[in-house]
Each structure stands twice: as structure tokens, then as C-alpha cells.
Amino acid sequence: MSYHYLLDLALILLSTKLLGIATGKFQMPRVVGALLAGLILGPAVLNILSETAFLSQLSELGVIVILFTAGMGTDLRELRSAGKAGFLVALCGVLAPMLMGTGFGWMAGELGWLPDNTLLENIFLGTVLTATSVSITVETLKELGRLDTHVGSTILAAALIDDVLGLVALTVVSSMAGDGSGLLLVLLKIILFFAFAIAAACGGIWLFRRMIALAHQKNLRRYPVFAFVLCLLLAYCAEELFGVADIIGAFAAGLVVACTPKADYIRSKFEPLSYLLLTPVFFAGIGIKVELPQLNGSLVAFSLLLLAVAILSKVIGCGLGARLCGFDGAECLQVGAGMACRGEVALIVANRGLSMGVLSQAMMTPIVITVVGCAVLTPVLLKVCFSRRAKGAAARSTLADRYHKAEQLELMSDEMLGKKPQ
Questions:
Q1: How confident is the model at residue 319 (pLDDT cuts 50, 70, 90)?
Q2: Distance between CA atoms of 81 and 156, rounded to whole angstroms?
Q3: What's the sign of the alpha-carbon dihedral 313, 159, 95, 385?
Q4: What is the mean pLDDT of the chain?
Q5: What is the 8-class DSSP label of residue 371?
Q6: Which residues lie below 8 Å from residue 332, measured CB to CB, with a gap of 6+?
């Protein structure tokens, strides 16, 4: 038995902490430092760390816990009120990247950057861009203290619906490629999963309330264990039985726990585990997966433009959906920036296209660069969008205070002169 994984974990935790502190000095979120740590230590730069089965499984457990704690911290009333907005944001956020990604792939073929690409490969490239990774956005919103706002709830709702719509798009494109999986079967599995999740929610809430009644508010240590078991079971059932992403099952389990009286206590027990181990490993794992072969000028240009298309398509599409729901301009930018991140879902879709022979190996490098670029830029864009809104609000508040003080001074001067206020 090899114990090299202990050294890998030590390097990951130390590097993510140090680079997290360094990025914090530049007013950037800590997750950027964790991503850069994996990129620097991975095959792309120093090649000290490489992807292993242990790190991959621990990273997957990390994203499950991140979405589980996000579910526990979600205000269900706010999420319910954001349902309509979430659907429109997700729908526009899938259609715009699909169309823009397909068009960009066709344009690259016409310019000779990808001379051998086909229409189906261009459509699959658009399908890759539809995927949204909400885990980085959730961590950034938590750090900014904006997760429980109307914008944060809309992003969470849209990301959940986005996964379902992206799965449908992937199924349609796979069927076009002769994968053989039927669209009706996938839709049936999605419906069955949500029915199963509702049943599990009712059973889980009843179980927790029953445990609390029997314990008479004593022996609280059992609740986090049962909550984690519920999280893992729903994540497993979502992925293995229904073909839905495991993070959706984890988030559903978090919503179940959020309906119980011990939600805050259970969440407080998971946050140290996530902060100390799982979250750094997950974000560093994204950077470790990057392998950069020798790049020529056309491939570099294609990669950078694909990154720009990936971000702009989500900002435009999701921002349009938010605008249709009555959000103002600043909030539309916040929603679009929050939905711009890509992560493990996009890589999974790309790997499936590669295994099916739809995507070429040459397309994988730009996709990986796009995923990492979106993961690094999304927290920065979010912080810029929210800080600009905060500065605008502060400026308006300052002007209002000045106007109020001037009005008070005018009234005082009128009183001293014996004038009656009009």
C-alpha cells in the first residue's frame, strides 16, 4: 500500500492556503488561490501532482458537501419565490451558449482553425458551453455574504434547472450521434427522480422530527451523521438510478435538512470539514486536471476566443432571462456572472463527446482552458459586480444624507430668521 496520497494532500492543503492568502491580498476570493494552486502543482506547470483515483473521489465528495451545505443554508421561501426567475434564467442561459458555441465552432472551421470539424462537433461544443458549475459560485457568494439574497437564490434555482436542461440537450445531441439513449427515457428518469426526491424529503423531515421528539433536545451528535447519510444516499440515487448529476441529489438533501429545526446545528458541523479538507481538494483538483500540450498560434487564439464566448454567452443569456423577470441592470450582471462558471459538468460532457468520437482530441485543450479560465474569472467578476453595486448604493446614500443635512440646515436658518417653513 502506497502512502504517497498523504504527501499529495499535505501539498494541496498548504499550497491552497498560501495562495488563498496571497489572492486575498489582491482583494480576490480564496477559491482563485485554490484553483491556481492545482494549476501550478499539476501537469500544466510544475507537474508535481497528478490526478489519481483517490483525489478524484475526494474532489467529488467535496463538491457534494459544498452543495449539501448550500442546500442547508438556502431560504426555501426565497428559493420558491425565485422559481420563475430561475427557470427563465436557466432557459436563456442554455439557449444562448448553445447557439453562440455552435456558431463559433462553425466560424473557426471557416477560418481554418479547426479544418476538420463537423456540424455535429460544433453542436456538441455548444452543448459543452451550456453546463454551469454552481459550486465555485456558491463558495464565492458565501464569502461575499450574498448567498441568501434574491440574486443568490435565483442563481441557485437557475443552476439546478440548468443541469436538467443541459442533460436534455446532451441526450438530444448524443441521440443525433447514434448513442442510442432515448429522449423520452431520460425525461422519464428526471421526472421519477424529482418524485423520489419529494418522497425522500417527506420521509427525511418526518424522521428528523421524530428523532428530536424522542431525544427531548438531548444528544445532538446523532443528527449530522443521519444528515450526511441522507446526502450520500440521494447523491448516489440521483447519479446511478436516475442519471441526474449527484450534486442535484446532494442539494436536495440539504433542502430537506433545511426544513428541520436542527438545520443550523447540522450545518455548523459540516463547515469545518468542508473548509479544512474537502473544499481545497475540490478546487485544486480542477487545476490538476489541466494538461497543456504544445500550442500553436491558431489554437491559442481559438482557446481565448472560446473563453470569451463562454463567459459572454452566459452573461447575455442569463442576464436577458433576469431582465425579463424584472431585475435591474446591476442584478442582471450579477446573475450572468454567477452562471458563467464551468467545471466538472463541462469536462464530463466533453469527455463523453471524446469517447463517442464526436469531439476531436484537438478540441479538448481549448475546452479545458475554458473551464479553468471560467473557474478563475467567475469569482473575480462576481466580486466586481457586487462591489460596484455596493459602491453605487453607498454613493446614493451619501448624496441622500447630504441633501437631508442641507435641508435641515435650511430649516434651522429659516427658524433663526423667523421665517415659517413652506
A1: very high
A2: 12
A3: negative
A4: 80
A5: H
A6: 318, 319, 320, 322, 323
Mean pLDDT calculated for residue range 256-266: 83
CA-based torsion, 250, 252, 254, 256: positive or negative: negative
Closest CA to 286 of 198, 228, 381, 373: 373
Instruction: Say what the pTM is.
Output: 0.69
Is the model's pLDDT at 190 over the cut of 90? Answer: no
Burial status of residue 124 (CB atoms within 10 A of its CB: 0-12, 13-18, 19 or more):
buried
User: Helices 344-356 and 361-416 meet at what angle, rounded to 10?
Assistant: 160
3-state DSSP assignment of residue 259: coil
- The C-alpha cell 429659516 sits at 414
- Whether 93 has a pLDDT exceeding 60, the answer reads yes
- Residue in the structure block whose three cell numbers are 427557470: 87
Alpha carbons 249 and 63: distance in angstroms, whole number: 12
pLDDT in tens, 141-179: 887 888 778 888 888 888 777 766 776 777 677 666 655
- Which residue's entry shows cell 434651522? 412
Residues 63, 247: Cα–Cα separation, whole Å: 7
Distances (CA, A) of 50 to 20, 193, 289, 372: 21, 35, 7, 16
Grid cell 450520500 is found at 232
Cα separation of 132 and 166, whole Å? Answer: 9
User: Cβ distance 23 to 32 under 8 Å?
Assistant: yes
Length of the chain, please?
422
- What's the rounded Cα separation, in Å, for the pair 128 and 313? 12
Q: Whole-angstrom Cα distance, residue 74 to residue 312?
A: 28
What is the model's pLDDT at position 208? 77
All cell numbers assigned to 58: 475526494
d(CA 50, CA 52): 6
Whether 326 has a pLDDT exceeding 90, the answer reads no
Nearest alpha-carbon partner for 307 in 265, 353, 340: 340
**Cβ neighbours for 324, distance < 8 A, ≥ 6 positions apart:** 88, 92
